[in-house]
Amino acid sequence: MPVRGRSAPDALADADLLTLYGHADRSQPRVRANFISSVDGSASAGGLSGKLGSPADKRVFDLLRQVSDVVLVGAGTVRTEGYGAMRLAPDASAWRTRNGLPEHPTFAIVSGRLDLDPASDVFAKAPVRPLVLTAASADGAKRAGLEEVAEIIDCGENRVAAAALIAALTSRGLRQVHCEGGPSLLGSLVAADQLDELCLSVSPSLEGGAGPRIVTAGDDPVDLRAMRLDHVLLAGSMLFTKYSRQKAD
């Protein structure tokens, strides 16, 4: 695929962006992550990734959700970033319906300890029953509370295994997986060689080195992973990049 460089997303219609970020063959499982970083490598400012963003970044963010089957987020990011129910705007839901998709993507939350509030809007106002991906050893009382509002899926004995959670999603027909964070979850996907694409927005700002990187490595070392640049888009001074790679056999 040729690398594209053009002024966008301001200069592109939604249909153009959907062509760039969508995939014609949705039957092929694909794991994509969307992150933002300052030019000096921080994934957040003041503890929040949203402070690095812009209206153009929010537009791409929303369109990436629009084309996904499931939005995958770690519980820590859900709490820190103040997530609510995974509900798309009416025009995005209408686009999905016209293209044979459910009105809203499924929300899948990764939580090894089940530290989630069953009464929060994430669950109470969800248009689709959320999934909670956890470990079999998670607290039984917390599990019982969350089972009232979500489907609980064990993806490992003592910790959530990245390969197991992706297998659990794809076995449910949720093949277009869209990960929004945080760094530990992305690190586990990279370490397990489960990441197919990375959409990285580069914010024209200097954070100063206090914030985390977009990937937090686990205990096991990870070999260098080569990525292919698919496109670069420019909106003002913010860059929007998409990289892809072939998984190891």
Can you summarize this structure?
With 249 residues, the chain is α/β, with parallel strands linked by helices. The protein has helices spanning 14-21, 55-66, 75-80, 90-98, 121-124, 140-146, 162-171, 183-191; strands at 4-7, 30-38, 70-74, 106-110, 131-134, 151-154, 176-181, 197-203, 228-235, 238-244.
Detailed description of the structure:
The chain has 249 residues and is α/β, with parallel strands linked by helices. The protein has 8 helices and 10 strands. It has a 10-stranded mixed β-sheet, with helices on both faces. Helix 5 links the parallel strand 4 (106-110) and strand 5. The two termini are 21 Å apart. The mean pLDDT is 93.
Q: Which structural class is indicated by helix and strand composition? A: alpha/beta
Spatial separation of the terminal alpha carbons: 21 Å
Mean pLDDT: 93
The amount of helix comes to: 25-40%
Strand content: 15-25%
> Given the C-alpha coordinates, what overall shape results?
globular
Q: Which tags fit this structure?
A:
single chain; 249 residues; alpha/beta; globular
What's the topology here?
Elements: E1 4-7, H1 14-21, E2 30-38, H2 55-66, E3 70-74, H3 75-80, H4 90-98, E4 106-110, H5 121-124, E5 131-134, H6 140-146, E6 151-154, H7 162-171, E7 176-181, H8 183-191, E8 197-203, E9 228-235, E10 238-244
